[in-house]
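Hi U.,

Before I forget, here's the chain from the pilot set. I'm dumping it here mostly so it's searchable later in email.
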Amino acid sequence: MIRVLSLLLIWILIALPAGAQAPSRSTGSDSGLPIPRYMSLKFSSVNGRSGPSTDHPIAWHYKRAGLPIEVIAETESWRRIRDPEGEEVWVHERMLSGRRSVWVVNPTWLRTRPDAEAPQEALAEPGAMLWLERCLSGWCRLEVEGQRGWAQARDLWGVYPHELGTAPTLSQTESHATGPSL
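Structure:
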């Protein structure tokens, strides 16, 4: 028994350094960040190119800082992005911001709370761009020009499936497996 434990301990000590060097999750990206992911344009003038270098021609010119985009591929310095209208181009990483924004797809009311019965603050029209603060159970807290409110995530482009409130979370799955909690 002692010999088995000793061999197990030796094996753990040998394997530990190799395992410690491996990343905690595989992202398949040069930056180590997940693909796909949402970001926004940092500047009001951004060139989208047909390939990942300045040698490639400009395919699209964006003129709206804060426009939400989805990073769908990347190289060391370039990101392939998809915009709310479905265009796909390459932009240099310096042109992007980690601050998330959303694009309004359907007219949606900004409400005082994440509740369809909550008082309405303002109507967001399709094409409006709002800053995303957080999402909770299918509702997103948004900000534009100092005004804040909650909107249903299904009316926005730039939210992840788990933010739509339709995919069960781990805690929801666990509670169903063990029965309802009080």
